[in-house]
Specification:
Elements (H helix, E strand, L loop, with lengths): L1 H14 L10 E12 L5 H19 L5 E9 L8 E7 L2 H11 L5 H10 E15 L10 E11 L8 H15 L5 E6 L11 E7 L2 H13 L9 E3 L3 E10 L5 E2 L1
Antiparallel strand pairs: 1-3, 1-4, 1-10, 2-3, 2-9, 4-6, 5-7, 5-8, 5-9, 6-7
Helix pairs in contact: 2-4
Length: about 250
């Protein structure tokens, strides 16, 4: 039932794009892994692999642009039971498929084996990433940003059709605060857990812990008038997100 619900929701996200005020939304194909380090390995080994092996291989063999982040849990509970996550973004899922085909090719065999010797990735799924707010500070390869990830569901009586108006109000609120980060909705697709009860994950990026703290203070004390939310969201998990690969690509506007 959850799988059918998410499929219907994804179709609604796609079919409702014409409802947005400027007649387009920005979307990306997205993949996500949850991984543990192999015995004797750590984050330094993963980052060295990306810099010295994965990126040179991708520069040579990946024919589609790709932006990837290594996410390490920081603010989390005991429910987060993995060492790190990898999330990657392409123009669309066709481009993601092109890269996936390349990863299973003979040319990638040694790089893939090296990755397997570093990490044990027990989950892998595809998502539709839909941008609600474009960050004013661009991501830079090799540098950290911070991702707050919420599980969210629409409140009773609210739906995808209410997102455009809601996004406009929240972007005005964030503009008043001088917020520099971005906001995305990650809609689960193939390979994701059927036990997920929400409608989507909400990802909010921050360029410093200070910026996150400022938001938390503002939210708690009500310093800046906030719009009414159309969502019920849980407490976020916050990750350090290193932009391990960042190759320019065109945004997909529908």
């Amino acid at each position: 039932m959850n799988r059918i619900k998410r499929l219907v929701l994804l179709l609604l996200f796609v079919s409702s794009t014409q409802l947005f005020s400027d007649n387009h939304v920005i979307s990306y194909g997205m993949e996500g892994y949850q991984c543990n380090f192999q015995e004797g390995k750590d984050l330094n080994d993963v980052m060295k692999f990306v810099e010295e092996s994965l990126n040179p291989h991708a520069d040579k063999y990946w024919s589609a642009p790709y932006s990837g982040f290594v996410m390490t849990p920081f603010l989390r509970s005991e429910e987060i039971d993995f060492d790190f996550a990898w999330v990657g973004f392409t123009n669309n899922h066709k481009d993601l498929g092109i890269i996936q085909d390349s990863w299973f090719s003979e040319a990638a065999a040694s790089t893939s084996e090296e990755w397997s010797n570093l990490s044990d990735c027990f989950s892998q799924g595809y998502y539709m990433a839909i941008e609600a707010r474009t960050p004013t500070v661009p991501f830079v390869e090799g540098e950290n940003t911070y991702f707050a990830v919420y599980s969210c569901s629409f409140k009773e009586g609210k739906s995808v059709k209410d997102l455009a108006e809601s996004d406009k109000a929240w972007n005005e609120y964030n503009d008043k605060r001088g917020f520099t980060g971005g906001v995305w909705r990650w809609v689960p697709g193939a390979g994701t857990s059927n036990s997920f009860e929400g409608d989507f994950f909400l990802n909010v990026s921050y360029n410093s812990w200070e910026e996150l703290g400022e938001y938390l203070d503002d939210s708690f004390w009500g310093k800046t008038p906030r719009p009414e939310s159309i969502l019920n969201c849980d407490k976020p998990r916050v990750y350090a997100a290193n932009n391990a690969r960042n190759r320019p690509f065109e945004v997909s506007e529908k």
